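Human: I wish I could look at a protein chain and see how it folds. This is the protein in question:
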Amino acid sequence: MIPRCLVVHPGALGDVLLAGPALGHLRALGFRTTLAVTSRLVPLFSGSGLVDDACDLEALALHRLFVEPPDPAAHDVVASFDALACWLGAGDSAFRANLARLGRPTVVARAAPPPGTGCHVSRHLLETLAPLGPLPAGLPSVRLRVTEADRAVAEAWLAARGIGPAEAVVLQPGAGSAAKVWPGFAALACRFRAAGLPLVALGGPADGPVVQALLEGGALEEDSLVRDWPLPEIAALLSLGRAVVGNDSGPTHLAAAVGCPTVALFGPTDPAVWAPLGSHVRAIAGPSGGAPWADVDRVVAALQTLLAAPGAAAPDEPVRAGGGTSVGASVGRGWR
């Protein structure tokens, strides 16, 4: 019988995507993996190919294991698995003790490396799994899969606007916090539009003010805006993009995970620790200390270099964790 491993990650979309190499390693060790995440992420990861199954973290009621004695029902749910990798509760002694009583191979660790180490999150998460089996020399290659149904939805939306696969540049102008929002999107979008490039922009529930400002300033058109799509359909749309330029945010990590050439723009967070994974990714940071920066020329140059590099990604080419620039496709000089 194939051993079953429950993997618990309480983080947001980008945080969980950085666990991709660790999830790939667990499957390489022979585990059938179930990923427990927030409910919004379950549909995306259920069909991602990164794990065998996904479930709602809240439904596990793990909070009942943070007390003594533990709730038997919550204990029994976790005990139904053969191993556990939990990036939650590492600082709570009662939680760790309750899991240890299961008598199964168990990892309880923090979801991010200690501050100041400079270790990338993906490497940290992989190294926490050492108790479950030998670690690989490098980060396993990963790619998030999109379904044909979701791809068909995205293709139809693009076709209705006269845009084909690998034609549009997708912008992710919002972020989880205002400090992460790059201030140059309006100028960048206007430059792309002046060059005749098809543009698509993502607008999630928290992106309203940023997106509205771009619409009112004429940098974007309402018809080019994708508002509040389900994550699996957003993943499919990103997989069909020519390139993505986005803030340090979940959708930008998602673009990298599906293999779209991605320029990730960083402010207060350190790309050495939080950059999206993939060989088709360029992470750009501003001045030290996270001061706002709006160097549009620098972003355009990074995207041109990324797309002009040899070794363009084929539709089904795997994304390799770690960074680098190996996607091709020439870029029009009008961008400058």
